[in-house]
Amino acid sequence: MDKVSLIHGAGGEMMQSLIGSVFANIKNNNAGGVGLEALDDGAAIPFGDKYIVLTTDSHVIKPIFFPGGDIGRLSISGTVNDLAMMGARPVALTNGVIIPEGFSMDDLKKIVESVDEALGEVGAALVTGDTKVLPKEALDSILINTAGIGIADTPIRDSGLNPGDVIIVTGTIGDHGISIISHREGFKFGTELRSDCAPIWNTVKAALDVGGVTAMKDPTRGGVANVLNEMASKSHVKIVIEEEALPIRQDVKAAADMLGIDPMEVANEGKAVIGVRADKADETLAAIKNTKYGKDAVIIGTVTEGKGVIMKTKIGGQRFIEPPLGDPVPRVC
Amino acid sequence: MDKVSLIHGAGGEMMQSLIGSVFANIKNNNAGGVGLEALDDGAAIPFGDKYIVLTTDSHVIKPIFFPGGDIGRLSISGTVNDLAMMGARPVALTNGVIIPEGFSMDDLKKIVESVDEALGEVGAALVTGDTKVLPKEALDSILINTAGIGIADTPIRDSGLNPGDVIIVTGTIGDHGISIISHREGFKFGTELRSDCAPIWNTVKAALDVGGVTAMKDPTRGGVANVLNEMASKSHVKIVIEEEALPIRQDVKAAADMLGIDPMEVANEGKAVIGVRADKADETLAAIKNTKYGKDAVIIGTVTEGKGVIMKTKIGGQRFIEPPLGDPVPRVC
Predict the structure, then answer these.
(1) Span B72-89, mean pLDDT?
(2) Which parts of the sequence belong to the PurM-like C-terminal domain (chains A, B) (predicted)?
(3) pLDDT reported for residue B292
(4) A52, B146, B181, B284: most buried, per Cβ within 10 A?
């Protein structure tokens, strides 16, 4: 492969292959602790008796305003959630904004208001930024890169699952991806589908405070299917999911069926997949459900010895859940 | 003004106005220490008895390979230098890469090699990243956002100048901007002009170790003219520059004259403007000159009571150096 293609940026197996063949060659890849080589949600650098967690994400979503959020809210939520997935309280974030010439100043102000509102929900701050403007023939829509730091006592990894653990998902699956695609295609389904875009640190903190969390990952590009496979593979375990337990909204399911897209393979922007010790599972679930963004949390499966991700279907069969090649549509986050 | 224009991203007064009317409205703007409201080279967050410095920059330069560097080297240098300007040892950096579909895999590998090489020069690491791919009709050239953290004992500010201080520039002025423009326009001037793109932490550290540095800023977009004005304004002092002392390469001057561009108003990518206590000036200058990227360092002026930036000309007159509206050409960094 001598050219970069869209699927290389879609969060699935093909992106892992691009990263493996290019970025994995970087030798200066670790500052102590968890570095680039881990390909986790962020890096963790030991500092005193704590860890500084550092993460980054570029947001290229189109349209920039969508039901349930906008690129500003998304940019903060994405970074807050990546920090949270490493067990870190979000502290300070950055925005690198790249704007096409002629962009509406009012829209920019709306985006910045959303940034501020999302920060306020989790007590984080935007502490520095950068602004670039490109000719309109060079760029078609605003892009926002966000980086952030958080503080963790002990970083939580995506590789920490053990046989016997229980898998919790903090809410309904596929809302963001399916709503964006439906909105973009102009589909109407009675109720308007909405993105789940939200900064979920408070939900994650409630789970962490119980003390039984072994692994976390947020199912953005490539969706829950991708995240379960990464967690199973990195933890050297098998995950067994119950199809009946999967929380998928009826309208999301209907839209996904019509679009021919599996809700398990599309991005979520306000959810976490959390591995928990079995003896703490009920208490952790209750703590999560008691938070604003955790009301629909459920246990969806368990961890066993072995490899891969298996789903027990409603009709009593079972099938592999494969990691998708990538999110089925571009510019969803 | 209801639309964003190119000059809003050009690093001068118009960009300050955009930032002032939009980003300055963010209320969640400080995590303790130096926050967004300071509009410094980065933020500084107290942690134990040190400061975590956090900074970000998006790199949109075109062409991506240029004499003296490429977008990969630039992305690391820009962030390392912003950390250095805050007095912070660069520790851990991120790369958010946005790639147009069809981009050459070999070029991507070359860029990543440059990233690694620049990191190695200052002992920093790339610890996490993000990759997005956009359709080629949406984006014309690769973009890289870099964020980074460093550790400072005490942050150095751009507002710390005091009357009596001496102003040092760590090397020749205008090399990056003038070489990029010349290269883009296909001009030849006998010798090939080269960007000064470099990570200058070791040079800055040599200055800091002497103990007399009062303020620093790197003259990127908007050049030395912009930086001197920002430092004078934020420090509530006047800066007096000697034209005769300004280190400008003969070929840069010739090209700048031909292009009708002032080398003082274009971006540098491997330089610092440093304020130093007068009693430490000679020792600091000697320490800087003893480093790889500081050989052409000189004292260019002094700080007095008053406001603004004055240049004493070679012929014995004097004139104001105004902050430029912006860098004269787009996509120079």
Answers:
(1) 98
(2) 163-311
(3) 98
(4) B146
Q: Is the peptide bond before A63 cis (omega within 30 degrees of 0)?
A: yes
By Cβ distance, the residue of B43, B115, B127 closest to A127 is: B43
A6 pLDDT exceeds 90? no
**What pLDDT is attached to residue A303?**
98
Query: Looking at residue A216, what is its pLDDT?
Result: 98
Q: Roughly what angle, to the nearest 10 degrees, separates helices B201-210 and B281-289?
A: 150
Are B201 and B299 a contacting pair, CB within 8 Å? no
Is there a contact between A145 and B58 if contact means CB atoms under 8 Å apart? yes
Tens-digit pLDDT profile for residues A91-124:
999 999 999 999 999 999 999 999 999 999 999 9
Q: Which residue has the tokens 């134990």?
A: B48
Chain A residues within 8 A of B75 when measuring between CB atoms: none
Give the contacts of B201 (CB within 8 A, at least 6 positions apart): B80, B81, B83, B84, B89, B90, B122, B124
Beta strand extents in chain B (DSSP E only): 43-47, 50-59, 65-66, 69-70, 89-100, 125-134, 143-152, 166-169, 213-217, 238-242, 273-276, 298-304, 308-312, 318-320
- Number of neighbours of residue A313 by Cβ within 10 angstroms: 13
Of A15, A94, A116, the CB nearest to B27: A116
Chain B residues within an 8 Å CB radius of A143: 98, 143
Is residue A164 over pLDDT 70? Answer: yes
Instruction: Check CB contact under 8 Å for A25 and B113.
Output: yes
CB-CB: which of B3, B19, B40 is closest to A105? B3
Angle between helices B175-185 and B250-259 (to 10 degrees): 60
Q: Dump pLDDT digits (tens) for B1-36.
A: 689 988 888 877 888 888 888 998 999 999 999 999
Which positions in chain A touch B128 (Cβ < 8 Å)? Answer: 35-36, 40, 42-43, 54-56
Question: How does pLDDT run across B29-42, given as a tens digit for each residue?
Answer: 999 999 999 988 89
Q: Which residue has the tokens 């859940």?
A: A321
Cβ of A55 and B94 within 8 Å? Answer: yes
Cβ–Cβ of A128/B56 closer than 8 Å? yes
Which stretch of DSSP H or E encloses residue B27? none
Query: Residue A40 and residue A86: Cα distance in Å, rounded?
Result: 8
Q: Which residues pair with B93 in a beta bridge?
A: B126, B148
Indicate which of B132, B149, B332 best probes the interface with A, i.e. most A CBs within 10 Å of its own CB.
B132
Q: Is the pLDDT of residue A1 over 70?
A: no
Question: Per-residue confidence at B250, pLDDT binned at 50, 70, 90?
Answer: very high
CB contact under 8 A, A103 and B4: yes
Residue B231 has pLDDT above 90, yes or no: yes
Q: How far apart are CA B220 and CA B290, in angstroms?
A: 23
Testing the interface with B: which of A18, A108, A130 to mutate, by most B Cβ within 10 A? A130
Q: In terms of Cα–Cα distance, which of B284, B162, B154, B325 is closest to B231?
A: B162
- Chain B residues within an 8 Å CB radius of A151: 47
pLDDT tops 80 at residue A190? no
Among A220-224, B151-155, B329-333, which is the least confidently predicted range? B329-333
The DSSP line for A102-131 is: T-BHHHHHHHHHHHHHHHHHHT-EEEEEEE
Strands B238-242 and B143-152: unpaired
Distance between CA atoms of B197 and A282, rounded to whole angstroms?
56
The answer to whether B28 contacts A120, with C-beta atoms less than 8 Å apart, is yes
| Mean pLDDT (chain B, rounded) | 94
Burial string for B174-210 (b: 16+ CB within 10 Å, else e) reads bbbbbbbbbbeeeeeeeeebbbbbbbbbbbbebbbeb
